[in-house]
Amino acid sequence: MRTLLETLRLRLEPFDETHFAGLLALNSDPVVMQFLGDGSPATAVEVQASIASAKERWERFGFSWWSIIRQDSDEIIGAGCVQHIENEPGNPVEIGWRLKRDHWGHGYATEAARAMIAFAFDVLGVAAIHATTHPSNERSINVMKRLGMRSLGLQPYYGRLVAVYVLER
Ligand SMILES: CC(C)(COP(=O)(O)OP(=O)(O)OC[C@H]1O[C@@H](n2cnc3c(N)ncnc32)[C@H](O)[C@@H]1OP(=O)(O)O)[C@@H](O)C(=O)NCCC(=O)NCCS
């Protein structure tokens, strides 16, 4: 099942082919991608593949990636996820976020994250939600702290040591 989430300023829509242009604009920015994957901007083919794989995971698990859309302009300003760490079904569930650079500094990531956390706790019924990031990604760590998440230190995921935070229900 694909679940749409809404907040005061945002709409979170499960990834769909119609989001391609907005997601390409987001993921082809080297500054946005600096701490993600191998740090290189995504290509059109990679964005298409990520939409296809998110759609498949929505069907299979009932959670995956959303496009983060401004209610007042319908613009795609970012993306967020609830997923198994490393997409390994045996791993804990994590939340993630990224925003277009011109939308940093307005609380949009925190606002979207609160809706994704409520979904994970209330709809999926998970007992704890994790978040992982590159240890130098201060902006992302600040979002985790703002959400009241607690540090679990550095752990080996995604082929490197990442900072891990947790929020219990
Ligand atoms: C990580 C990322 C999403 C954080 O974005 P952000 O804009 O700093 O975070 P938020 O949207 O929660 O906004 C918080 C900032 O807005 C300010 N703000 C303004 N209005 C606000 C409001 N209504 N509510 C909360 N914060 C508000 C806060 O004071 C804070 O400002 P500060 O950076 O000066 O402390 C963004 O930097 C990004 O996309 N980075 C690249 C991708 C990435 O690395 N993602 C994480 C991978 S793990």
From TrEMBL:
Pfam families, A to Z: Acetyltransf_3 (PF13302)
Stretches assigned to the N-acetyltransferase domain: 10-169
InterPro entries per record: Acyl_CoA_acyltransferase, GNAT_dom, N-acetyltransferase
Annotated SUPFAM superfamilies: Acyl-CoA N-acyltransferases (Nat)
PANTHER family named in the record: GNAT FAMILY, PUTATIVE (AFU_ORTHOLOGUE AFUA_3G00765)-RELATED-RELATED (PTHR43792), N-ACETYLTRANSFERASE DOMAIN-CONTAINING PROTEIN (PTHR43792:SF1)
Name under which the protein is recorded: GNAT family N-acetyltransferase
